[in-house]
Amino acid sequence: MLVDFNTLPDTSRIWVYQCSRKLSDEEVAAISEKTSEFLKQWTAHGANLEAGFEIKYNRFIVIGLNQENASASGCSIDASVHFIQQLEKELDVDLLDKMNVTFYNGEYIAHKSLADFKKMAKARSVSPNTVVFNNLVNTKEEYLHHWEVPAKESWHSRFLA
């Protein structure tokens, strides 16, 4: 069951999929339509899942699930991953690779491999105050308050000298 992302409780489970490039407005519109259709029929063991989404900065697909009524099962999580894989193929983008880092480079959002981010940290091209996107957040509350954080406050801190 599709609901407005903003109405999901703060305890909702969150999945953040970062795109390897900025999406066009047309691609965002297509993703929005397809994600709406997917979430309308998303179920776990026959129970409708109350879920919403948002697309941030034409780069991140954020799906939230209210687990108070029904939780995602292995099969429903597999279905969502399959859906994201289909989007990857259709748009020729990478959405599932967790070995990439996205961060602010001035006013722009940069997307680098983890190896390149480590090199940048070693060269001091990124600092402890560089704002990174912590895509490992698990709940809507964490997403709202700890997703865009200085590198020193996230798992990225281990790469900063």
Automatic annotation (TrEMBL):
The protein, known as: ABC transporter ATPase
Organism (species): Marinirhabdus gelatinilytica
